[in-house]
Predict the 3D structure of the following.
Amino acid sequence: MWFSKNAKARGTLPDIKIKRKYEKDTIIAVAGNPNVGKSTLFNALTGLNQHTGNWPGKTVSNARGEFKYKGKNFVLVDLPGTYSLMANSTEEEIARDFICFGEPDLVVIVVDATCLERNLNLALQILEITKKVIICVNLMDEAKKKKIIVDIDELSLQLGVPVIGTNARNKKGLEELKNEIFEIGINNKKTYNIKVLYNKTIENALVEFEPIVKNLIKDKLNPRWLSIKLLDMDEKLHKTLNNYLSFDIMENQKLKQALNKINQEFFADNLNGDLIRDELVACVFQKAQEIYKKSVTLEDKQYTQKDRKIDKLLTSKITGIPIMISMLFVIFWITLAGANYPSDLIADGLFFLQDELLKSLTFIGAPQWLSNLLVLGIYRTLAWVVSVMLPPMAIFFPLFTLLEDSGYLPRIAFNLDKFFKKANAHGKQALTMCMGFGCNACGVIGCRIIDSPRERLIAILTNNFVPCNGRFPTLISIISMFFAGTVALPYKTLISTLILTGTILIGVIVTFLTSKLLSKTILKGFSSSFLLELPPYRRPQIGKVIVRSVFDRTLFVLGRAVLVAAPAGLLIWLMSNIFIGEYSVLSYCSNFLEPFAKSIGMDGIILMAFILGFPANEIVIPIIIMSYLCTGTLTNFESLEEFHLLLINHGWTWLTAVCTMLFSLMHFPCGTTCLTIKKETGSLKWTAVAFIFPTVIGILTCFLVATTAKLLNLV
């Protein structure tokens, strides 16, 4: 990203201006509410000519791209989705600061044709700042289906700027939009600022105050907008404004006198503190409503009735949670039932290649120890990770993305919000928790959507309590052998899925409890409020969902897992093949851990398998088998019955199975997730806490369960 670093050198806030690659580049800010198709429009305009990063000093990501039109280069900056510029969140602060102080040549505001009235609030706030604006009314096809008629010409007349109707998914209206961008950005086509009229007291204050402000800022900013902000100044805006102007505007004596006089008048009219902001917001809402009524016709005034009926069912206090759990059950059932065959197929192919690699190394005369280390150590571990991890991810991530694309995911956050509030955590943690089901590393990255640093840390530290797909093989194998083994074959997958869903719900409950514990101890504080939009239900774009989930999530996570699994394969092979006397290094380590492991309901080999499985949870079960059989390489059985018999012969009981499942649910994050936590927090200290905290919770839980079972003579 080409960010100016001059402000950092001055020791002030980071400069949010985008440097132009070429002097004649036109910088365009793309703004809008979440879920209006802003990113879709951005991608349609820029294609592959884009890249992402973080805003300076922020964990909120941005995207920047370019396109050429009529020989001119246009640089698009995709601002975070936001409902307002009142700066109640990091996203709002970034959007406001870039539009006000980043000096874009033009702002394209994307609004949703199906809920235009709400979207106009942000548009009016931006129009108070700059008149270099184009309104892009997106999702016109959705509006047509719901019999909503948007009068584009009337809307343009009311707002004083060009308005273009688009359907970004099908690239309709983009040429017209590009032409308007060219006309305003290059030819300086005239637009005009509309005024949101406030009550008499505020308007009288602005008449007196605005000339003073205009004289001080010398056309650097819209004087009316800045005058309004000075009446409702917040600390962050004050700092950014000082950085932009290079002086403290609030220190001007004439302005201070005028402001004191205005505050006295406000006080006399009982208009002070939060009431000023409430009045400003109310007037913007009222103006948006007026424009909406003049510009939009509802042919069917019950167009939202269908969505509301669905929401009554999906977000009800009575049915919301049961439906959510049922949905979770269905997703896991499809994942489990669908992953077995492709997993076996991939394993057969990779292990066939393993045999060919051994033959090739033997043919060229490589030493046996080197062949075994490279193939039976490193390659075999990688083959296990890929064959076990890829199929479930390839099924789970598209299903998860379909829920996201259809609009159901925000309903899950809505249902869980009250529980996270009781835990003094952020409601958006529900979304990051859901991401963790596919991969905890993805869940940690998803925590960027949480504005509060305290609440973001809570979400990061507790994300590991929901099992990723790497822990599913361990959980599923144990469930199938010890708890669903006696069930008839047609119902075995169903019962296994039910027990797995129940196990995962335990993880969710632990997430709530540990979030509360953290918020009362090392991360004290109260939960912050946030606005959660329930977007309209939409038909998912299945093709794009599959491509996005496979490339952006599945292959990305698999790549990271492979990077950490390769050295793990080397270490495991060395520990199991280097002998001191009669026993391998792995045996010595397992025997050392045996007394402690017994106290928490397991044995030394199981605990050692979890430790060696740190790079990738998928290899825990193969390490257990290898250690019991003393084979020196990762091993698997042809059937669960053989595996079950092996475990029984080595002292496993139902208690061992339960404690192993609980520890799998509650132990340290894998290497990929720890690496991601370090990158997201920038702190080794918090990475260490993220490693130790769930492990301690898991040890205490297993100890409590094992001790209780022994005291009650249940084993």
Observations:
- The first helix runs from residue 6 to 9.
